[in-house]
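Data deposition worksheet. Section B asks for the primary sequence of the deposited chain exactly as it was used as input, without tags or linkers unless they were present during the calculation. Section C holds the resulting structure in token form. Section D is free text for depositor observations; keep each observation to a single sentence. Incomplete worksheets are returned to the depositor.
Section A, Depositor: J.P.
Section B:
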Amino acid sequence: MRKASRLFEIIQIVRLARQPVTAATIAERLEVTVRSIYRDIAALQAMRVPIEGGRGIGYILRPGFDLPPLMFSIEEMEAIVLSLALLERTGDSELKQAAKRVSAKIAGAVPPPLRQAFDANALHAWG
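Section C:
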């Protein structure tokens, strides 16, 4: 896993946790060393990501930190959904899993009436 991907995953892991997450737990999930996680946490903190905590205690993400919302047109959303559907069918196992996670995130963020329209469009792409 590339470092940029790992940094993003660390943010996601810490954000979704209800309690402080130890470096050992993060390292196990990402299949890297604890030392790598310490370096990555320091890098995120240097980028002003509000991760707090310390070695042996665990890490939390202060509330209010999130990626900025993106606005897509209907056509752009259709392109995204169709691309994800294609990846889920033809990508390698890592890409398939990533596409499924992205699809789930989009489904959770799109209002139900639009979600139904996008689901229908993705299904029509495969006949």
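Section D:
The chain has a mean pLDDT of 83.
The chain has two domains: 3-61, 74-124.
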